[in-house]
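Notes from hallway chat w/ T.B., transcribed later so I don't forget. T.B. wanted the structure written out for a chain they're using in a teaching module, and asked if we could keep both sequence and structure tokens in one place. Agreed to drop them here.
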Amino acid sequence: MQIERLSPIVATLKPSNHPYLSGPWTPQHEEVNAVDLEVIEGAIPADIDGVYIRNTENQIHTPLGRHHPFDGDGMLHQISFRNGKADYRNRFVRSRCFQAEQQAGESLWGGMMDGPEVSKRPGFGAHGGIKDSASTDVVVHAGKALATFYQCGEAYQLDPTSLEDQGV
């Protein structure tokens, strides 16, 4: 197996004992490509040809207020299957809010359990009072992976094979 680590993102989150920021909920901040994954037992059928994609939340910066798991930025994880082999890649969804916080180097919005006064900027989720993290849903339609936040945010398009960002 070969692993390629992409350029790091700006992250300010420190280790924590918060139940949704530690243990199995510990955020992942690294984007990678892993080629030719090792099959531990059995074999991948040679006729499987496609991708499996899931969306997760990964908190990048120290929360401004209380933290809910849905507050983290969207990260798509993809496993592609072809000719009895599997490859893995993951990418943050480059939402407008992700990009603004990367530029600022800190959290700019409170979370789902906070009031609007916690945010340093007006909200964006569904153009309302919370951050649009594109972190809860993903569907593939018309050859595009579409990531959204709680079915109310803008749809961010990614190529389902490469996870290359294709905008709103």
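Follow-up for T.B.: The mean pLDDT is 93. Might be a good example for the class.
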